[in-house]
């Protein structure tokens, strides 16, 4: 099967700030994400995981290197991304349905239709997605009437409603209790299987990475770089019980070892 | 039982204050030239009602016109300053500087430029209420959660789209909260300007009444001002609750 790269980072480095306040966040790094991939980025806090997501979503320009999208330079063709963070940041003056609809008001080509038809025809589209994550009964509620887990479900929907080429998740379940978190893992896996989306997930939970991802990229401490790119072979759909199986547990322990014993900062550049 | 108690307690307190005031004046034999009794004030209110009415209307009019201009200017400036970090940082010190000048001090300048009368009262009412509106609106817009801003920017939303969909609606509770403060300030500004330099308005009425030792009328004017001030505040509190009920709920994380 030919792998179509959706995003390629080529020797991409990031340094924040100028002069004496400089922080090198990312040592020149290569990373390729193929269409349909589910990649988890793990690593110690402050190693540049969020920075990589910001690069891919064009919120941040790399200090050095090139980012290609679909084999072309980023910006040549507009790439559609959806993002979700740990804080759901839903708009409290809108219903859950309106919140999820928001990207359709902004992203072409939906935007034009939205203006013309006041969004009426997108209602079904939103409701289908809400039904898929089990939120349909709450579509007319206000965000503050939802539990934390439900807010994150709505947050996921908002990041997916405009059919993004790439779904970027920055510790989306970090603030949830273990039980709710595992429920959301299953929801996200189901969405991924159903919609054939491409996902980059930043997390500090290694079990989450191992359960959800097809590939886990381990990063070194700041300035970050990818020190391990590991395929996760478990068959899908993965039942939650898999997290207790020995293969799974040893994978998680392996990843933990990688992070704990990671050499700090730059050691490459030998070649 | 306690619920109804809570509701009527404020009214009860006001009534008792008036009763104590009345009794105190009667028992201490205080002259109405010093402190008229509430009943005397009410009598003056009734007696002079036709004379008070045009003045009250004038005060209301200058307050509302000044306030309307102040809201328009304050809202526009607030949006402008809140939408740009540079504008925020540049303009904020100036705004704080302007706000720390006692606004009463500008009344003579307005009189110098426009003559005594309606215009200085309107301008004072306007200038005195701009600042809290600007600050509140700018704060509402400038404090949009960074995550939300990233979500919007990753959708390639323009600055205008972010402002329209997120910044402005988000700043509305701040805006409406500032209105009830602003209307009170406008009212104060208007009365001060009338007192200093006008031949109309409740402030002016009180000045004239005082100079002719018509003390009950002075206090009648004060009552009119108190009732107007409280009503304006109450009206804008209700508007605030109506317009931004969601903000009174718990914040969404
Ligand atoms: N806007 C910024 N300005 C300066 N330094 C930053 C900025 N954003 C992140 N950093 C620094 O860059 C490093 C990587 O940040 P980040 O990518 O957010 O880490 P992670 O998400 O892995 O915890 C951190 O040390 C952080 O302090
Ligand atoms: Mg981070």
UniProtKB/TrEMBL annotation, chain A:
UniProt GO molecular function: ATP binding; ATP hydrolysis activity
PANTHER family found in the cross-reference section: ALIPHATIC SULFONATES IMPORT ATP-BINDING PROTEIN SSUB 2 (PTHR42788:SF19), TAURINE IMPORT ATP-BINDING PROTEIN-RELATED (PTHR42788)
Name of a matching Pfam family: ABC_tran
UniProt entry keywords in alphabetical sequence: ATP-binding, Nucleotide-binding, Transport
Keyword Transferase: no
Protein name: Nitrate ABC transporter ATP-binding protein
PROSITE patterns in alphabetical order: ABC_TRANSPORTER_1, ABC_TRANSPORTER_2
InterPro entries: AAA+_ATPase, ABC_transporter-like_ATP-bd, ABC_transporter-like_CS, ABC_transporter_ATP-bind, P-loop_NTPase
Entry similarity comment: Belongs to the ABC transporter superfamily.
Domain ABC transporter stretches: 7-246
UniProtKB/TrEMBL annotation, chain B:
Keyword field: Cell membrane, Membrane, Transmembrane, Transmembrane helix, Transport
Signal peptide: none
Superkingdom in the source lineage: Bacteria
Annotated membrane topology: Multi-pass membrane protein
Recorded coiled-coil stretches: none
Regions crossing the membrane: 12-30, 60-82, 94-116, 122-144, 174-193, 213-239
Record GO biological process: transmembrane transport
Places the protein is found: Cell membrane
Cross-referenced PROSITE patterns: ABC_TM1 (PS50928)
Domain ABC transmembrane type-1: 56-236
Record's keyword annotation contains Metal-binding: no
Keyword Membrane belongs to the record: yes
Annotated family: Belongs to the binding-protein-dependent transport system permease family.
Protein name: ABC transporter permease
The species this protein was found in: Pseudooceanicola atlanticus
């Amino acid at each position: 099967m030919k792998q179509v790269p959706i995003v390629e980072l080529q020797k991409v480095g990031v340094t924040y700030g100028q002069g004496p306040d400089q922080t090198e966040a990312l040592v020149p790094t290569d990373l390729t994400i193929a269409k349909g991939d589910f990649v988890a980025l793990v690593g110690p806090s402050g190693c540049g995981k969020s920075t990589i997501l910001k690069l891919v979503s064009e919120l941040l320009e790399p200090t050095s290197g090139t980012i290609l999208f679909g084999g072309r330079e980023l910006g040549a063709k507009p790439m559609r991304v959806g993002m979700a963070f740990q804080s759901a940041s839903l708009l409290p003056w809108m219903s859950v349905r309106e919140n999820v609809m928001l990207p359709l008001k902004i992203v072409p080509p939906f935007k034009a239709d939205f203006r013309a038809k006041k969004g009426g025809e997108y209602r079904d589209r939103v409701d289908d997605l809400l039904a898929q994550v089990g939120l349909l009964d709450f579509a007319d509620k206000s965000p503050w009437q939802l539990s934390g887990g439900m807010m994150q479900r709505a947050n996921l929907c908002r990041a997916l409603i405009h059919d993004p080429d790439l779904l970027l998740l920055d510790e989306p379940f970090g603030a949830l209790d273990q039980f709710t978190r595992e429920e959301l893992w299953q929801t996200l896996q189901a969405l991924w299987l159903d919609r054939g989306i491409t996902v980059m997930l930043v997390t500090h939970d290694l079990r989450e990475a191992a359960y959800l991802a097809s590939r886990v990229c381990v990063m070194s401490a700041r300035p970050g770089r990818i020190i391990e790119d590991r395929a996760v072979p478990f068959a899908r759909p993965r039942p939650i019980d898999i997290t207790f199986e020995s293969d799974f547990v040893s994978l998680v322990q392996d990843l933990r070892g990688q992070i704990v014993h990671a050499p700090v900062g730059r050691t490459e550049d030998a070649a | 039982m306690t619920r109804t108690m809570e509701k009527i307690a404020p009214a009860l307190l006001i009534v008792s204050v008036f009763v104590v005031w009345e009794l105190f004046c009667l028992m201490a034999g205080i002259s109405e030239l010093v402190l008229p009794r509430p009943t005397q004030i009410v009598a003056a209110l009734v007696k002079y009602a036709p004379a008070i009415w045009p003045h009250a209307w004038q005060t209301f009019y200058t307050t509302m016109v000044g306030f309307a201009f102040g809201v328009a200017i304050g809202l526009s400036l607030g949006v402008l300053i809140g939408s740009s970090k540079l504008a925020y940082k540049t303009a904020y010190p100036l705004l704080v500087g302007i706000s720390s000048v006692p606004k009463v001090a500008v009344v003579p300048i307005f009189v110098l430029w426009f003559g005594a009368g309606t215009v200085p009262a309107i301008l004072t009412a306007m200038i005195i209420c701009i600042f809290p509106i600007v600050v509140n609106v700018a704060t509402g817009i400038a404090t949009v959660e960074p995550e939300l801003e990233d979500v919007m920017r990753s959708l390639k939303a323009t600055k205008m789209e972010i402002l329209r969909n997120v910044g402005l609606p988000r700043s509305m509770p701040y805006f409406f909260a500032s209105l009830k403060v602003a209307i009170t300030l406008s009212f104060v500004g208007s009365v001060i300007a009338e007192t200093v330099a006008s031949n109309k308005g409740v402030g002016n009425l009180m000045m004239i009444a005082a100079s002719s030792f018509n003390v009950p009328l002075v206090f009648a004017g004060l009552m009119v001002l108190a009732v107007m001030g409280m009503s304006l505040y109450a009206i804008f509190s209700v508007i605030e609750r109506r317009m931004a009920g969601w903000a009174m709920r718990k914040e969404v994380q």
